[in-house]
Protein 1
Amino acid sequence: MALLEINDLSVAVNEKRILQGITLSIGEGETHVLMGPNGAGKSTLGLSLMGSPGYVRESGTILFDGQDLTELSADKRAKAGIFLSFQNPIEVPGVSLSSFIRNAIHEQTGQPVKLFSYQKKLAAAMELLSMDPSYADRDLNVGFSGGEKKKAEILQMLLLQPRLAILDETDSGLDVDAVRTVSQGVEAYQESRNGALLIITHSTRILESLHVDRVHILVKGRIVRTGDASLIEEINRNGFEQFIQDGDR
Amino acid sequence: MADNRQAVQDIDRSLYDFKDDESGQEFYRIEEGLTEDIVLQVSEEKNDPDWMREFRLKCLGIYDQTEMVPWGPAIDGLDMGRIATYVRHKGEMKTDWADVPEEIKNTFERLGIPQAERESLAGVGAQYDSELVYHNVREEVAAQGVVYTDLESAIRGEYAEMIREHFMHLVPPTDHKFAALHGAVWSGGSFVYVPKGVKVEIPLQSYFRLNAKGAGQFEHTLIIVDEGADLHFIEGCSAPKYNVANLHAGCVELYVAKKARLRYSTIENWSKNMYNLNTKRAIVEEDGVMEWVSGSFGSAVSFLYPSTILKGDRSRMEYTGITFSGAGQNLDTGAKVVMQGEDTSCVISSKSIAKDGGIGTYRSSVIVGKNARRAKASISCDSLMLDSRSRSDTIPAMDIRTNDADIGHEARIGRISDEAVFYLMSRGIPEADARAMIVSGFADSVSKELPLEYAVEMNNLIKLEMSGG
Amino acid sequence: MNAIQVNTLPSPTYRFLRVNDSILEVPGGIAPADDSAWKGLLPAGGLSIREIREAETDGFAKIAGGMGDAADRLFQEAGVRPWVLGVPAGSSGETVYLPVKAAGGRAQLHALCVEAGEGSDVTVILDISGEEAGCAAAKGLTGISVRIRAAQDAKVHLIPVQRLGSTIRHFEDIGAVCAERACVRLTTLCLGGSGGHLGAKCTLAGEASSFDSETGYYVRGDAELDINAVAAHQGKQTDSRMIFRGVLADRAKKTLRGTIDFLTGSSDSVGDEQEDTLLLSPDVENRSVPVILCAEESVDGRHGATVGQLSEDMVFYMCSRGYSKEQARRLIVQARLKSVASRIPEGRLRWEVEQWIEREIG
């Protein structure tokens, strides 16, 4: 049984159907990529999996580790082991990055977090991501540049150690070095946790140094093609044109 | 002896509803409101010098003739009869622990207040042993020449003249009705004098002086910080203070001399039957700095506007405050400033949260005088509405009488963003905790200004309020 | 003279500030003006101007104006019968130009009701002008009342432009109510006169309706201007925007009360109020009371006020482009008012106003 099993899922936002009949499964430790042109509904899938209010499941099922996610609120899904790195992380004034993550760990594990060892882990992860240590005390995402916000998301992923991490357009807005750094972070996650990944992207930069198991192409809310890593090469060469036509068929 | 018995009878009758007396005896009627008699009795108990007794009587007269203001929360629930009795019999008027409302007891429990402290806060039983801590602090600062004592005894001590010169000059009894009431029945409170150039390292706390008798309801605090000196004074505490006589008409007068600095922090969490009509005012001389930090969580009704007169050139004021109005509360708070000197500046930053039908009002006044050249003022108020049963009103006002001023004001009102809640939940934080976290974050600008243990207390209070406790 | 209480703050505050309301002195003999000339001024497009019908009086009287009940009573007691401008449903883009002439030394009242049908679009310009000679001025008072009912999807743009001589007092009392998706725009220019009261209240009753108001004022000499603006959000998703740009010179006095009122039920509404006031002399008096009242959770309300002198940075920037300090200052001050004037439809009036601004200001 796969870690994540999505079966014939249809999702509407603001009474408009965005995802149609999505079927997809991700096994433990696997790395899947979801690609597609802008407006295909990629972020919608990520947000639906995380349980964002406003994303209404019209039909189909989502099973995580055999458990039906439908009735679970976002925090319960996080506790179950799902993590979403947001495309546009929200600013949370008055809550420091460091204490926020520590609190989240506490919530998810139910155990108090020993300060000293936490701070060491935090510092190590920040160094891996080339993040200035001063960010730990800054209010979460407040005044962070786009790139720093994305790094802060990956930092959270490294410290929360989910079983499935969904990365929504994590590489957009990052310069070449930052993409490399973030990739390192993602690799570290894969290794330390044998974590599964669903990487949502419309460019292939972040995928260059990662081992990818499956690639899914999403066009107008439908998965029009699924294949192995060689699909990425095809996209790089020919773009999404032919798949858009496929979608229309 | 006979007097005492009569006094006890009075208390008994005031605490219960009158019932028909089957024996056919005449009832002893409690006078409504304050009388000269009561005021004179207070004066005698306090062993007032003549001038203070005369002053109290004058205040009573002013109180009787002054009308209540036509704006702000209604004060219909104020029972002046009960208050009159409380004033007269404060010493013997103890609440029975059994009578303390469950809600109050629960809050003590959840804030982890030790039992002995609980009784003191609830107006029950003996003195709190913070008296000991108080004495130790006194000795420590006395070495620097700092005077930190209770006001009542100071009136007759070596500082009598200084006190007489300052007492209710900054807040005259004509200021408003409850300033006059305060002048007539004030009792208890602190007197602090910091000599020239002295920096007091540890904050002085009025909490040290909390005890069953005073309960701080008509406290008068007079603080004089002399030239170049520096003091942080903390008033109140996060635990709810309960009393059946539900008026807090305190008065705080702060004198900040040239180049001196005073920070006055308050966390107020009076029990939810209280009417909090506290008047606080500071006057600042050249190059002086006045900082207000204020967290208002309690009372049924509050009228609270710390006000500052920036008299000296280059004097400054900063106000950081948060008000949390929950069910059954109508809290009207804000700040007032009068800019008189040249090159004065002030920054007012206020946050307000309303939930469960609470009413929160931010009310302020910034007056820039004709001669307040190059005055700079920056005011910002942020309000968070947590549901549609509550109310949050922002009523700031500016009166500027010179063109050589730079005044900016901004206000925002809104709700907790759904996106922010979802973001926190996606990290495993349950919804209620996520909301509490966001509200705590909202209050962060205030908790940052408080000493750590107060900040922690304040955050606990917020968690408590958010969990519906 | 009778004194009436007007421009009352919806939620009063400290009395010592004396901003809770204002007194308007009204001469005893105040009487309705003769605006029958308005009938002949209509453009094509099916619009009509006629006297108010008995059956309509109550309806329009129920629309709350910014100056308050006492002003309403003043008009009633003086026997004023408002003219009704009827805008048929669907009619679009017409501009109605109505002159309001202040008569020498007299106290007069003008009243207009605008009934905008569904989906209609109309612009109504009130050109308020008049010179006054000698000291008969004290008795002179020009009062204007406008009530607007905007039906669904209607758009009404009201533009009162006041260029009175420096000895004439005046007041404008405006009230509007919007049905679903209706929009009322208000562009007020208060450029002359010896003192005035402006009151404007828009009740956003219908869902997704909006109120967009810009006021530009220039007060000088010993004139006093008193303003009370209220955006009352009743319906869901309603929008209000109230901008005040002004200049105070000499010994001028100004009081501005601007209230955004979110009533319960107005969820997802947005209200924005901004004030930008320039103080040109040390003897001016400026009072501002920007208020937000809120009884609804899901709203976004904000206000901002900047009061003070010309930004030195801005002056420096212009000097670095070759302007003299004087020129720079004059331009910045004028720009403030011109930005409001740019909302007047292109034409003679706008040109005249811009000329007036360039000539008289700075």
Note: The mean pLDDT of chain C is 91.
Protein 2
Amino acid sequence: MTTHVCECASAVERIVRAFPSGRREALIPLLQAVQEEFGYLPQDALRAIARHLNLPAAKVFGVATFYNQFRLKPVGAHTIRVCRGTACHVRGSKQLLDAVADHLGVTPGETTADGEFTLETVACIGACSIAPVVMVDGDFHGAVKSNAVAKLLEPYREK
Amino acid sequence: MSTVLREHHTVKALTEACCSRCTHRAATPCADYVRCRREGPICHQDAGCSAVLAGARAAANHALAVPIIYLGAGTCGLASGMDKVIPALRGFLAEHDLDVAMKEVGCFGLCHREPMLDIKKPGRPRVCFDGVDVKKALAIAERYLLNDDIPAELAMGVIPTPDADPDAPEFAALPDLYTLPVLARQRRTVLKHCGLIDPDSLSEYLARGGYAALEKALAAGDDGQSVLDHVLQSGLRGRGGGGFPTGRKWQLTRQQTPTPKYLVCNADEGDPGAFMDRSVLEGDPHRVIEGMLLGALAIGASYGYIYCRAEYPLAIKRLEHSIEELERVGLLGDNILGSGFSFHLKLKQGAGAFVCGEETALLASIEGKRGMPRVRPPYPAQSGLWGQPTCINNVETFANVSSIVAEGGAAFASVGTERSKGTKVFALTGTVKNSGLVEVPMGITLREVVFEVGGGILEDRPFKAVQIGGPSGGCIPDQLMDTPVDYDSLIAVGAMMGSGGLVVMDERTCMVDLARFFMEFIRNESCGKCIPCREGTTRMLEILERIVRPAGGESPRETVERFKSVTLLEELAPVIRDTSLCGLGQTAPNPVLSTLRYFRDEYEAHVFERRCPAGACRALLTFHIVAEKCKGCTLCARQCPTGAIWGAPKQTHIIDQDKCVHCGACQDVCKFDAVSAQ
């Protein structure tokens, strides 16, 4: 993992200082705030959080790796989330996920070599009536067909 | 959100003071504040102030002098295209200089008809339009707003309003929305306001009798005893899945002496295929918060948390806004309405862990720890958040409380069956015609829910089963569809009420694949603390994958293992059920057990005949190109990941079975339906 002593240090410091020190219940909101800023959790940020909350770094890493939301690696310019909820599954989301993975040449959890897309799965987005659903960044796409994946992603590549 | 009204129409919000004589502020609360919003002014008589409040009430009740456009802006509405319709309509109104109010409302529940848009003109009913894209929206606006020509053939129906003449001849051709089959069998209490009011407006909730139950409970001056009595009498049971009587849970927490006590709302709706709580939080957040205030009063809690999934950004935004508005007017905080009762509410975002729906894991997560369950007892009522007495209820449970207190426990108990009272909200999804959110009285049969409310199966295919209760629940086959919806009957047939996900499946869904799907989900979501769940679900998944993996290429040992798989599943399941630490592990084998119970023949077809009767397990299928249909377009050959398809352009193509990896890509892309799978 890359170490970030660089430009992000002051931003981390600013986020961390907005939370009360030594209060463990601030840990998850803090991790969320840092990830919101950087798109992932830089290792140095985790250490800074541990110092601020007076927790062993291992506890912070433990929480950061337990929850699905947190990423320890940088993500691509766009994040694709394929919903794998029951309703989507019944309407073919497995084939859809395979089609997206094939199209991008990555497996879920990975980022394309050009840094454009990160592919993720999500347990359920809660938009079951328009299954199968793919979410790209903040946009929902409902009733997506496997053969329409390339067309769906093309506009994002240009952004 | 965002009523776009011109300056000269802007009336005071109903939450605001009528004049300087009103002394109600968060710091100096007035006991009559809520009643004053409905009937006031109370403390002084002044024609001007009466007019101000009457105007504010009329605006909050949508009796405006200008037309109103209601935009279905729940997650499903936005996802289906409402996000594009809104700016287009804004542009249209600006271009024609039309004086029209726009209101973003939550989900009405008819998700399959989204995006939905309603238009209400003064003195007329709300006309509802479904499947609205930009083109249709502009056509509707041009005809109805610009030319006053009711586009009846584009409309779905009307919602009657108090200021409209129900017998107006110009609307005679349009049905009352509530008489449509999808709504006629429903009984909407929790969803009463969803899709009808602006969820970001406390004024609109107050104008419809909101927080009157809280005011009544505080005025009783009995420290919440009357609230508890009503809830006990109502027979309300937890809507999160377990069905524990809410009144008893509250009583247990009330009896504890240590303070402070905490009240937690579980909005970590993690069951895949369930979105009831999301819709209620997006469509009517104040109903949930009022229920929490009443609960806090009944148990003596002064602090509360709403633990909401981070995957629900809109619900979080609406809750944050509502909490802030309530704090500003003094309905949250210290000394609420001058009663001496204090309640501080905070929103906590989950971080994507299914297990956090389990109450002890949820508490650990609020404390900033990994969301792992712990052994009970002690129960959270005795020792919960930071070791203090804590009560945890689900969103829908809280959403039922205000009407129980307002109308009395007996009224609530008059709906439903002997041991399951009231209504239940279901997220009806899968291959059903009317997918969406439905609220039905307890005791209705599953068949009525799927075939009357749900309208039957898409494309009228044969029905196979309905999955209820998510990963902890089970599948119910056709022969048991007359089972009534109540906690105990569902457990008797090997399923459970669960939180309300109802996934309908037709003949094309493979039950072995479904069991595998749930097992994979649970394996991924197991927190790993106890061995039966961590290892057991992994083993069960391995066995299920063995059943659905491609035929051929097995070693003799693997063949023997495959033959033993059903026996092994039946051996492992009770061990996991009996020895796991928390509810997630204890119910983990249910999807396998219930499919084995009712669809054993499908398992046997996979195991012994290497065949998937539903045609869903592609690894077990053989793909062929039908010569008569193939046009030789070469699309499939270009799509095939292993180069298993060959043939010259405009000639019939052939699949090399030795190279085929059964991915089905050829079938997906073929435009002539020329790829058959057997």
Note: Chain A touches chain B through 46 residues (CB under 8 Å).
